[in-house]
Design brief:
about 140 residues, alpha+beta, binds adenosine-3',5'-cyclic-monophosphate, 4 strands, globular, 7 helices
Length: about 140
């Protein structure tokens, strides 16, 4: 299996509770390397573009409002099978369905305020990474 990159966001419910380090420890324990990271405040336009695929969903407005409600930490994670590995580390979108030991089981507050985002495929990862990082900000 080749080394892959995935895109991650630590969401406002996580930064608000000072969980960046705790979540990063789970990421690193899973063998993923944080090769880029920055704490930002997303603009409404950035959040709407990022989640454009969910535009028609009833929760779209709530999702965008939440993502701009506080700081987020955007990251690039690298490792073997990084996309699927990180999805396993995050756990199910709905924390009540997430497996024990996962980030969402341990920390998420609800299906909306679910602490982390991770890309769903390598192609999506490349698009999402390019939205927030230039090449020279990623140091593998
Ligand atoms: P994420 O992996 O960031 O991708 C889309 C997000 O939409 C998802 O995590 C959830 O935070 C959010 N989401 C999904 N379903 C719902 C829902 N039913 N109500 C509110 N937010 C949701």
């Amino acid at each position: 299996m080749a080394v892959q990159r995935t895109f991650s966001i630590l969401k406002p419910d996580a930064t608000e509770r000072n969980l960046t380090g705790a979540i990063n420890a789970l990421i690193e324990k899973a063998g993923l390397r944080i090769v880029a990271q920055k704490r930002i405040r997303m603009t409404r336009e950035q959040a709407e573009t990022f989640y454009a695929v969910h535009k028609e969903r009833p929760f779209f407005g709530e999702l965008v409002d939440f993502m701009i409600s506080g700081p987020v930490v955007v990251q690039v994670l690298e490792g073997e099978n990084a996309v699927l590995n990180y999805r396993d580390v995050m756990g199910a979108t709905d924390p009540s369905k997430a497996a024990d030991g996962t980030i969402r089981k341990l920390h998420a507050k609800s299906i909306g305020e679910n602490s982390v985002h991770g890309s769903d495929a390598p192609e999506t990862a490349a698009i999402e990474i390019a939205q927030f990082f230039s090449g020279n900000e990623i140091v593998g």
